[in-house]
Amino acid sequence: MGKTPSGQNEWALILGGSSGFGLATAHKLSEHGLNICVVHRDRRGAMSRIEPEFEKIRERGVALVTFNQDALADDSRAEILDDLARRLEAGGGRIRLLLHSIAFGNLKLIGPEAPAKSTARAALARELDLEEERLAEVVDRSFAEGVDGVQGLTSPPGYAQDLFLEDEDMVRTIYAMGTSLLTWTQDVLARGLFADDARVLGMTSEGNEVAWKGYAAVAAAKVALESVHRAGRGHGHAGAAPHSGQRSPQGAGPHAESVRQAHDSGRRGERDLPAVAPGSRLDQWRDHPGGRRRTHLGAHAMSLYLHGLGHFHPENQITNQFLTDLDIGTNQEWIEERVGIDARRTVLPLDYIEQTRNLDPTQALEAALYTHAETGRRASEMALERAGLDRGDIGMVIAGSCSPDMMSPADACTIAAALEMEVPSFDVNSACTSFHVALYMLSMMRPEGLPDYILIVTPESLTTAVDYTDRSAAVLWGDGTSAAIVSTRVPSRIEILGNSLDSSPSGHDKVIVPSFGHFWQEGRTVQMFAIKKTIRILRRLQKEFEEPHRRFHFVGHQANLRMLEAVCRQCEIEDERHYHNVINFGNTGAAGAPAVISMNWDRWTAGDDIAVIGVGSGLSWSGHVLRFGETP
Questions:
Q1: What is the pTM (predicted TM-score) of this model?
Q2: Which distant-in-sequence residues (6+ apart) come within 8 Å of 165 by Cβ?
Q3: Taking a C-beta distance cutoff of 8 angstroms, is the pair 442, 488 a contact?
Q4: Which residue, among 572, 571, 592, has the nearest Cα to 581 in the 3D structure?
Q5: Alpha helices, DSSP H, located in 206-262
Q6: Is residue 109 within 8 Å of residue 164, measured between CB atoms?
Q7: Residue 246, class by beta-carbon neighbours within 10 Å (0-12 exposed, 13-18 middle, 19+ buried)?
Q8: Which residues of the chain have pLDDT under 70?
Q9: Beta 494-503 vs 305-312: how paired, if at all?
Q10: What is the DSSP letter of 291?
């Protein structure tokens, strides 16, 4: 392309221009004198990387207009084009290039596949004189954090074997990466914004011809994109609206072309092209770009308010030195490197653990210093005080945990009895996501069928289910209880938004707490699951709720510090916006995230938003945002 003559108001409109090929194109075209309009969708934390790139474009003396909005939403597209039309009309300009570089799709498999074993990893472990299990932990964690070079050494399978491609996945991917270009082109053409020699470019790849694993939806999108381009080359575009002050486009109008784009391997794309509609999902979708709409099953269907939070942790502390003294093959360095936990609380006497190693968990409840009824009562009283309510104001009690005190009666009943509450009481147990599931369930209920105030309690005493000869479990678990008072009818300064719940029941055997048995999990699989699902939920909440004038914080499932750090790196969460208590209290199951928020209760003010995310047995994963406003 030759240098654009000075004084000509010619523009390139780039969809997805904040990274990759789109950003590189913006740089190159600005060198040739074209003004640039970039439409992108990035969270606030990523802007520290993007803004310097935009500034380089401005320094070349061209105009740069950026819109950090959803290019797939009809209202955003109209707003952007209306703004751009005013700019072009004021300077007598036209769009010379429309580039579609949106990467937003789905890489699920179309069906199950037989996993292959990593012989290379075993050979490397022998060469380095390392335990293959330890090497696998490091490799899997590194890949989950984005280190692509270790892909060949990761644990198979590389793709979820329980969530397969669905019709909704295909529709959204085809629109996002394919036919949305047609919608943009039609709207630009209808406004008469194209120059006579304008070009419309879309990014394709050889994945529409070569069989790449997990690429079915994206390949379909690329085929649709190329079909649109072929049709565009043969269409006369009659009837385009003329642009004020300039002649109407003549001849064939904008010329459509497909540009082949190199892609990394399918597994790299799994992170770059996030899955949009995972299986078994129960959440609230906005209007589908293609005109379809998913069923509303909660969050935005009705308001849910948080009035108070409380927490309780027992006094006895299991330090890393205590575990080292048990002589179970661990020490401070081993624990710090793997999970980043220094201490945990327990309802058990320390001498009981030291003498018995809790080899017979049926005796643990007898030895415990606290029952769920007592820990639940203490946490609930704190929540009541903070909410400014009396016990008589509560109309329902819901409890949930990884391991209830008894099969029957429900923990909720024993807690309500300890609080002297005669109200409907029942358990909703979903392991570490129990608190989230209770909120989600309430969000789907009719407000007129519920009492004004509901008490949700998550009592956890998982140290009673730990085998203290098993170092992998002993280093993780701590005991704690959280309590929350919520309402669907009475507003408060804290609104609960964006509730979602997903589950993959085929993974039910990955994390187990049997009746009268010890906790067990498939460690590496669960760690990768927790990282990936938390990243997916957090990115969704960032996209939907992060706003420049508000403070966006993150509280995740308190599984272990290393898992949380990996999520923060991937989602660009700054240290001061990440809150946790796992270092000093360990993994307290369903009580973890609510207790973190409760322990910082006096810190939160109007303008704070907290992304709260849980992952757990089942397998299940869930998230929501707590939005703090002024006291009503």
A1: 0.59
A2: 106, 108, 109, 110, 216, 217
A3: yes
A4: 592
A5: 216-233
A6: yes
A7: middle
A8: 1-8, 45, 104-107, 112-118, 143-152, 155-163, 206-212, 231-302
A9: antiparallel
A10: S
